[in-house]
Specification:
Layout (H helix, E strand, L loop, with lengths): L2 H9 L11 H23 L4 H37 L2 H14 L2
Helix pairs in contact: 2-3, 3-4
């Protein structure tokens, strides 16, 4: 696919293929985080101490941040490298926007 075709896909909002090497690891991390969040929900339903709930929520947030870092690293190593090789500046702009949202 040449640069013009790639940019046309972005402009049309058409997703294109992304090659990710960490998909299984990301899915496993997300499953663990979901399980942990369900446990926090149960803590709230059981009326557990607020301090304990806050500590567990912090652990869930840290797990999600860590997962985001894995996704970001994989995205840079594969999708962004491919985009740069193809001259796709939109991919860089999209990444910048995503990073801004991720670090809020």
């Amino acid at each position: 696919m040449d640069k013009q075709q790639h940019e046309a896909l972005h402009a049309a909002g058409t997703p294109h293929e992304h090659n990710h090497t960490q998909t299984k690891a990301v899915l496993n991390r997300l499953s663990r985080a979901i399980g942990h969040l369900e446990a926090v929900r149960q803590m709230v339903e059981d009326g557990r101490d607020c301090s304990e709930v806050l500590i567990q929520l912090a652990a869930v947030r840290a797990a999600l941040t860590s997962t985001g870092k894995v996704i970001l690293k994989d995205h840079i190593e594969h999708c962004i490298v491919d985009a740069v090789e193809e001259g796709d500046t939109q991919a860089i702009q999209d990444l910048e926007k995503a990073i801004d949202q991720f670090i809020k």
